[in-house]
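Let's practice the habit of predicting before peeking. Look at the sequence and jot down your guess about where helices and strands might fall. Then scroll down.
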Amino acid sequence: MTVSVHEIGKMPNGDLAQQIVLENKNGHQIGVTTWGATWQFFKTNDGHDLMVGLHTTDKLWEQLYSVGDAIGRVGNRITGATFTLEGKQYHLKDNELGNALHGGRDSFSNRTWDFTIDQENNAVTFTTTMTEAIDNFPGTMPTSITYTLTDNDEVILDFAAESDQTTLYNPTSHGYFNPAGIDTDARDLNLQINSQRRLELRDEDTTPTGNFFENAHTAYDFLKPTRIGDNLAQLEGPYDVKFDEAFEINQVAGQPAAVVSDPKSGRNIEVYSDRNAIIFFIANPEVAYHEGDREWFDAHPYNAIALEAQTLSDAINHEGFGDIVLPANKKQTYRTTYKFNNLA
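Done guessing? Here is the structure:
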């Protein structure tokens, strides 16, 4: 097991972006960076990259499609960028159609994190402190994210935070995966999600209504391994229609919340989580630079999927979605594990 540090370059704000590479005994590697505690790649020992990532300072700065981002304080959308906590209403910095997406304008993902290396455990821990002056959430909240690459080819993400005031905390990771390799069509992957229902989302801004839909016998039914493209073809919408859904997870000890697999190579990625939801999103993030260009999209189809483990979206504004309140002076931890299988 080895850990190495490399310079990526200067960010537009003058901060130095550094990359930390963890390698396990099998020769597989992950790369993460101090800018946003962003996960950049998972490379196999035979040269396959199984994640779409951002590798230059300009792309990291733009953050289009949240590629590889560490997300927080709160993942996904808070409707109206507003919530009430302990009788006080808070207004966040909206960044999408009047809502706060992935923590709002100033969040985990657009700042430089400090880091410490744990050579013995093949891990790196990123730390930063969020304040109300930064993101409009209450409280000063030191927080950390630890990436560990095990010799069993697991990437373990440990999230932790503690605040001096009661606040919200619902972090996640926005990595984009493709076990077939990032130059292949993600529609040919098989996906299984241990879920029987999903949130009903408003068409105009993808915020929850408070209701659920049943998945069975719909395009959103992934309870058994299913070719993504077959279900995607059932959706109505533009040529680049996407899944962007919050699936409620049936939590069963020892069983993955989701599995994405490549039937050709046999490689798969299992997602284990202590959270009650997974956001499934499919895209080619580069489409952000080619909006409305059908010819480009046809030549560069969906190449990865995100499987974001978190508490159900907008939980603070919907009873029964889960508890994302972090009481003052109480430490909260979460763990998500991505297990990469059949790599050799």
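How did you do? The radius of gyration is 19 Å.
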